[in-house]
Amino acid sequence: MANPLNVACFGEVMIELMFEELPGATEANIAGDTFNTAVYLRRVLPGEHKVDYVTALGEDHLSGKMLDAIEKHGLGGTRIRRVPAKLPGVYSITLDDQGERSFSYWRSDSAARQMFETNDGPDFSILDGYDVVYTSGISLAILPDATRLAFFDWLQQFKRRGGVFAFDSNYRPALWESRELAAERTHTAWTLCDIALPSLDDEMALYGETEKQVIARFQHYNYSSGAIKRGARAPILLGQFKPKEFSFPVVSEVADTTAAGDSFDGGFLGTFLSYADTGKAALSGHQLASAVIQSKGAIVPTPSDLSVA
Ligand SMILES: Nc1ncnc2c1ncn2[C@@H]1O[C@H](COP(=O)(O)OP(=O)(O)O)[C@@H](O)[C@H]1O
Ligand SMILES: O=C(O)C(=O)C[C@H](O)[C@H](O)COP(=O)(O)O
User: Fold this and answer.
1) 3-state SS assignment for residue 199
2) Structural domain boundaries enclosing 253
3) Catalytic: which of 33, 52, 168, 262?
């Protein structure tokens, strides 16, 4: 692989709302699955490597705040398209008694949906020149279906040129036309993927499979690395790795599981791209996710953010 690396994470960054009381105190943040992963990847990957966030934003005040956040987190934002007259999407988090999250969305006409659209059809040139491209099933879900298919064609050329594709299925039923189509498109992404970062729950829901069936299916794909995330239980390692005992401690006081999977992906990728060691990468992902679920919201502050505040 090239050194230093040029990594792109693409998808949708949104306004994240947490209602403590309604009416009453509301907290607004900037988050979104691939953005969260990019932020955590940036924290783990050594500084000589470049991490860009690729999306489309509007030209409004909130889009400007998002660009500021991208820069503040040390991410490159030069490939971000601006789409006049479109706005960023919004989602709210609802937590149950165990800290398990669910989402409501206002994003069906967001700027990010236009990320690759031109008058001449889908154009992926904003992804040219990267060594690693990371995205998710959420990012696929928000694209027109013709663009998803064109992306898979582009991906084959990218891989022929030596590009590495990392993927998390992050299944959100509300964003897809149907479960069948989500399953078909996600399957294509899994067959093109080099570093696979699925969550067990999402894969079970998407394919109607048991845990055993999901694990068996993932043994058939030909990954260089990856891990199946299983919440508090140890992840299942994928690809080639040295069999070694790792311990994955359980967090019992969970405040909010939002971005557990996203932060795991960021830690995993940052460590795997540095050391090419799947076990070490999974441990790094787990340590990061364990810290993230002990705070509310997707992006937890760094120790230096806390000292500034
Ligand atoms: N209670 C917990 N204790 C320790 N780690 C956890 C716990 N819940 C989640 N994690 C970590 O977060 C990762 C992602 O969680 P998971 O729920 O599987 O993903 P997702 O949020 O994508 O559904 C897990 O692989 C694990 O590393
Ligand atoms: O649904 C979306 O589009 C979002 O981006 C919302 C969340 O920030 C992430 O999806 C959290 O993902 P988990 O790591 O699975 O908790």
Assistant:
1) strand
2) 6-308
3) 262
